Amino acid sequence: MKSEHWYITLDIRCGEYEFQSSRVWAAAKPATLNQADKHANSYAKNFYCDRAETMNDWYYFNGGEVAVRVSNVLPCTPEEAEVLNRFT
């Protein structure tokens, strides 16, 4: 399946706190799930800063104080993307 809009959710751990961050990726041209997943992982790898250590699908920053991983990558319609962009 190809889509121009993808909804990406990241799991984030910062010390003892856990939360999620979401965003909509508007691809320049329709992308496959594999391409969207690669984009999501690139986004997660650079979420906190440009130097991350990787272990078991998690990206660790600041000596392990902050950890980020991709939770979900889902296609969405342009209409859904517009609504999601208002709240993410």
Keywords:
single chain; 5-stranded antiparallel β-sheet; 88 residues; 5 strands
Structure report:
With 88 residues, the chain is an alpha+beta fold. It has one domain (2-87). Helices cover 26% and strands 53% of the residues. The chain has helices at 33-45, 78-87, and strands at residues 2-14, 17-32, 53-55, 58-61, 66-76. A 5-stranded antiparallel β-sheet has the order 2-1-5-4-3. The two termini are 24 Å apart.
Helix content: 25-40%
Which strand order spans the largest sheet, edge to edge or round the barrel? 2-1-5-4-3
Low-confidence stretches: none
Number of domains: 1
On the 0 to 100 scale, the average pLDDT is 93
Distance between the termini: 24 Å
Radius of gyration: 13 Å
Number of strands: 5
Query: What class, by secondary structure content?
Result: alpha+beta
Largest sheet: 5 strands, antiparallel
Strand content: over 45%
Number of helices: 2
Global geometry: globular
Short description:
With 88 residues, the chain is of the alpha+beta class. It has a five-stranded antiparallel beta sheet.
Set out the fold topology.
Layout: E1 2-14, E2 17-32, H1 33-45, E3 53-55, E4 58-61, E5 66-76, H2 78-87
Antiparallel strand pairs: 1-2, 1-5, 3-4, 4-5
